[in-house]
Model the fold of this input.
Amino acid sequence: MNNQITRKDFMKYSAATGAAMLLNALQLHADEQKLTNLKVAIIGCGSVSNRYIPHLQTSSMVEIVALCDIKYERALEQKRQYKLNAETYRNIDDLLKGVPFDMMITLTDMQVHGDLNKKALLAGKHVWSEKPMANTYAEGRALLDLAKAKNLKLWGAPAVVNSPQFSFMNKMVQEGKLGRIASAHGQYGHTGPTWSAFFYEKDGGSMPDLGVYNIATLTALLGPAKSIMAMTSIVNPTREIDERGTVKVEAEDNAHLLLDHGKGMISHIMCGFNYFDPHGHEAKGQQLHSIQIFGDKANMRLIGYDWETNGVYLDDSWESQAKLYVAETGGYQWQEGATKVAESIVNNTSPKINVEHALHVLEIIESARKSSAEGKKIYLTSSFKWPLF
Ligand SMILES: NC(=O)c1ccc[n+]([C@@H]2O[C@H](COP(=O)([O-])OP(=O)(O)OC[C@H]3O[C@@H](n4cnc5c(N)ncnc54)[C@H](O)[C@@H]3O)[C@@H](O)[C@H]2O)c1
Done:
C-alpha cells in the first residue's frame, strides 16, 4: 500500500481542512452573536407599542429589527418616533419573508393573536404574545405543542409575577405567614378603551383585557384552579370608538369569577369596562388595594394594581396597625415581559413567566364564558407547576 500523499491530494486535504476550520469559526461567531443579542420584530404598532418599544430599547441584549402593522403608517411612525434602525412591513407574510429575526412580539388586536403566533412559530420564530396568546385554550395548547416540536419558545402576557410585590406575597404564602388561607379577591376595571373596537368585539372583552391580570396573580399565589363558576354581562350595548363611531358590544364588559383552588381556598375576581376609577388605566398614585388575601393568621392587601403596584399591606397583629412592605418597584415595569424573555433566551435562563400558567389563565377565561352561558360549574383540565418559584 502506498502511504505517500501526492501534492494534489495534499492541496485538496488542506483546502478541506481549512474550509472546515473556517466553517467552525463562522459557526462559533454565529453562536457568539446569538448569545449577546436577540433580534426582534414587533407586529402591531398601536397604543401598547409605545410602552414596549422604549422598554425594549433599554436592553443591550435586544435589537428591534422590524416593525409591522396593517395600518402601515403606524409602523413608519413608530420607526420615526423611536429612531429605530428597523425595516417596516404591511403584513405578517411580508414580515416573515423580510429581514431575519429571532422573536416576534405580538401587540395586535386580541382576536388575531393565535393566527399570527402560529405563522411566526411555523416560520421558526420564538414568540412573546400580548394577552391572550390565542382565542381558545385548545388553540393556545396547539401553539405550545408546535413551539415544542420546533424547539422554540412561546410566552404570553402578563408579567405580573415579575413584580417585587408579587415575590413578597408569594413568599408570605409559601412561608405560611397567613396561616390557613381561605379567600382572596381581585378587581380591575376602568371605563373602557376608546381607541379600538376590538376590545368590545367577539373574543375581546374585559376578561382577556383586564381580568387576566388578577387571574394570573391569584392562580400564581394560591395555585391552579380546579373549577370555576362565573357570571358575565354586557352593561353597555354600544360604545363610541375614536375614528369609528358607534360599535355594538359583543363581548362581556362585566365579569365575576369564582375559582376553587382546592384545600377549601376560594377566590373571587371582578373586572369590567364600566368601573369608574380615575386610576384605572394609569395606576400611578393609586392608594387603594385591588387584591386581598385572607388567612386565619394574617391578611395581605396589594396597593394599586397587580400590574403596577405601590406596595403590600400585611396585617398580622391584633395590637398594631397593618405594615406597608415593598413600596418600591425595584425596576419592575408591567411592559417588561418581552424584554425579560428575550434576555432569558440570550442568557439561556428560565424567566419567572411561565407559558403553562398563561395557558391555564386562558382556559379560565374561556370556561368563565361557558359557565355563565350554561349556568353551571366548569371543571378545569389545565394546570402548571406550582409554586412558580
Ligand atoms: N393599550 C394598552 O395600554 C395595553 C396594555 C396592556 C396590554 N395591551 C394589549 O395589547 C394588545 C394591543 O392593544 P393596543 O391597545 O395597543 O391596541 P391598538 O388598537 O392601539 O393597536 C393594535 C394594532 O395592531 C394592528 N393590527 C391589527 N391586526 C393586525 C395584523 N393582522 N397584522 C398587523 N397588525 C395588525 C392595528 O392596525 C393596530 O395598529 C391587546 O392585546 C391589548 O389587550 C394593551
